[in-house]
Amino acid sequence: MEDKIEISTETIPLGQFLKLANVIETGGMAKWFLHEVNVYVNDEQETRRGRKLRNGDTVEVEGFGTFEVVQVK
Q1: What number of helices (H) and strands (E) belong to the chain?
Q2: Cα–Cα nearest to 21, from 7, 35, 9, 34
Q3: Alpha carbon distance 73, 63 (integer Å)
Q4: Strand pairing report for 52-54 and 11-13
Q5: Integer Cα distance of 31 and 20 in angstroms
Q6: Which listed residue, of 11, 17, 57, 68, carries a Cα 20 to 30 Å from 38's Cα?
Q7: According to the model, what pLDDT value does residue 33 have?
Q8: Whether this model's pTM surpasses 0.85
Q9: What is the spatial distance between Cα 9 and Cα 32, in angstroms, rounded to a whole number?
Q10: Residue 37 carries which DSSP code?
Q11: Ranges under pLDDT 70 in the chain
């Protein structure tokens, strides 16, 4: 089961998304977190905190679950 995380913009950087999904506490933790924990965007491992996510993307975070990006209009 995926948690749906709503965004109000067309894209969101992965680091901000992780904060929005309550996976990390601050945006500054993103770089460290992405090198310590396996994160997959659309089934591909990702380590770039600036990776742009769009509506329909899925983000799987080891130990936290799977999230779907949902753009609200």
Answers
A1: 2, 7
A2: 7
A3: 30
A4: antiparallel
A5: 15
A6: 11
A7: 97
A8: yes
A9: 25
A10: S
A11: 1
Beta-carbon-side half-sphere exposure of residue 14 (alpha carbons within 13 Å): 23
pLDDT for residue 1: 64
How far apart are alpha carbons 8 and 71 in whole angstroms? 6
What type of residue sits at position 58? T
**Angle formed at CA 58 by CA 47 and CA 11, multiple of 5 degrees:** 75
Number of domains in the chain: 1
Measured in whole angstroms, how far is the alpha carbon of residue 11 from the centre of its chain? 11
pLDDT of amino acid 73: 79
Where helices occur in the chain by DSSP H, the ranges are 14-20, 30-36
What is the domain extent for residue 27?
A: 2-71
CB-count exposure of residue 9 (10 Å: 0-12, 13-18, 19+): exposed
